[in-house]
Amino acid sequence: MTTLGIIGSGHIGTAVATLAQRAGVQTVLANSRGPESLTDKVAELGDQISAGTVAEAAAQDIVVLTIPLVATREFPAEILAGKVVIDTSNYYPSRDGRIPELDSNQTTVSELLSAHLVGSRYVKGFNNIAARHLPQLARPAGAADRSALPLGSDDPEALAQATALLDTLGWDAVPVTPLAETWRVETDTIAYTAPYFDPDTTDAGGEDSRPVSAESLRETIAAATRVDTGARTV
Ligand SMILES: NC(=O)c1ccc[n+]([C@@H]2O[C@H](COP(=O)([O-])OP(=O)(O)OC[C@H]3O[C@@H](n4cnc5c(N)ncnc54)[C@H](OP(=O)(O)O)[C@@H]3O)[C@@H](O)[C@H]2O)c1
């Protein structure tokens, strides 16, 4: 069975590890501080999840890279050469600083980062959903209320592998290709986080999500209009 490496043990890294534990996917979780700092977290997550170094996580079959955008831009690309990498990062100028190529809408976050992660088999994923909604909405294949996530890639084989992983983790996938089109699922578009929020339940710590079918997500992505990134202040 496919093994998973997760680099970044924050909100999204922990949420994806929770899905992996439920699905029985052997996973190595890494962060910037080293495996010792993850002892309590992996014990809590369960027996499928172990703590490792960044290199150990990068050696698994598929790698989820889920660290801040500024760290992704500095991540040593050679560690991920040849790997299917699912990058989750989003651009928040207030956190990441202004990036002229993104502010001008000249490129997308995924094009920028795939160019940096040269040699990897790049996929954009898990970026348009609030972390807590990932475990809330995961369902087995065939469930009537299964939800979908977008996956962006210019690499059909990597996209197929990421789609299969998502299926194992409890999610359908909607392809967004080529990467130049992934602005459709970037911050502040109609496809970004809002579809998964249930407007009738506002308890931020509880089940405040609603299922989003692949068909519904496809329609939302098609209807998205591009945000003027340079005008964003957050
Ligand atoms: N939070 C969300 O709901 C959400 C939703 C969609 C997408 N995203 C995007 O996904 C990415 C991660 O978000 P998050 O909220 O999960 O972040 P987070 O909670 O702040 O966690 C970031 C993690 O990245 C690790 N890290 C930072 N630099 C690293 C490096 N060079 N090597 C290895 N690990 C490194 C940190 O390690 P330490 O723990 O050792 O500091 C930490 O575990 C961001 O780009 C964010 O925009 C977030």
Automatic annotation (TrEMBL):
Example of a GO MF term: oxidoreductase activity
Matches recorded under InterPro entries: NAD(P)-bd_dom_sf (IPR036291), P5C_Rdtase_cat_N (IPR028939), STEAP_metalloreductase (IPR051267)
Domain of life: Bacteria
Keywords on record: Oxidoreductase
Record-annotated Pyrroline-5-carboxylate reductase catalytic N-terminal domain positions: 4-91
Protein name: NADP oxidoreductase
Source organism per UniProt: Mycetocola lacteus
Source taxonomy: Bacteria, Bacillati, Actinomycetota, Actinomycetes, Micrococcales
